[in-house]
Amino acid sequence: MAADAGVTLDPENTLYMDLPAGRVTITLSPELAPAHVERIKTLTRQGFYDGVVFHRVIEDFMAQTGDPTGTGTGGSDLPDLKAEFSDPSVARHLRGTCSMARTQNPHSANSQFFICLADVPYLDGQYTIWGRVVDGMEAVDAIRKGAPEHNGKVSDPDAIIRMQVAADAT
């Protein structure tokens, strides 16, 4: 997915996520989820996501990361966030959407997030959308997938090499 021609990205609301297969550019949506965007930027600036694996990746569904333990049960030391669900008429879980992972408790998002590998309309209004891949989706598609019989758990997972807020990029 190429960046839209003529669109100027706000460096303070753009992330660069370097993966083994290349750079992914994500535009943040503070108008949809201000607390979640701030959390992602805070953790990114702390280097929290650098080296963290995509522990759960399901073909034609999503790629999940953000757990420093790599088990799907970990998070940051920061408190969990209150849900900021979007009305599906405003934002939907389409291919390339970045959304927060959580437990059954809607107010349990912390550091884990997923990138939709396909349109996933049944997630609309139930998970907080905080951004969208605008360039480098081919690098996301190349992330190693997990076994369906193990709910997408990846045995030899790919990791985020480095994640940066574009305003801070070196």
UniProtKB/TrEMBL annotation:
InterPro entries, per the entry: Cyclophilin-like_dom_sf (IPR029000), Cyclophilin-type_PPIase (IPR024936), Cyclophilin-type_PPIase_CS (IPR020892), Cyclophilin-type_PPIase_dom (IPR002130), Cyclophilin_A-like (IPR044666)
Q: Name one GO molecular function term.
A: peptidyl-prolyl cis-trans isomerase activity
Positions of the PPIase cyclophilin-type domain: 20-168
The record's keywords, sorted A to Z, are: Isomerase, Rotamase
Q: What class of enzyme is it?
A: isomerase
Q: Which CDD domains match?
A: cyclophilin (cd00317)
Top-level taxon in the UniProt lineage? Bacteria
- Signal peptide limits: none
What catalytic reaction does the record list?
Answer: [protein]-peptidylproline (omega=180) = [protein]-peptidylproline (omega=0)
Q: Does Isomerase show up as a keyword for this record?
A: yes
Query: Which ranges of the sequence are coiled-coil?
Result: none
Q: What is its EC number?
A: 5.2.1.8
**GO BP field:** protein folding
- PROSITE patterns in UniProt: CSA_PPIASE_1, CSA_PPIASE_2
Q: What does this protein do?
A: PPIases accelerate the folding of proteins. It catalyzes the cis-trans isomerization of proline imidic peptide bonds in oligopeptides.
Recorded family membership: Belongs to the cyclophilin-type PPIase family.
- What name has this protein been given in UniProt? Peptidyl-prolyl cis-trans isomerase
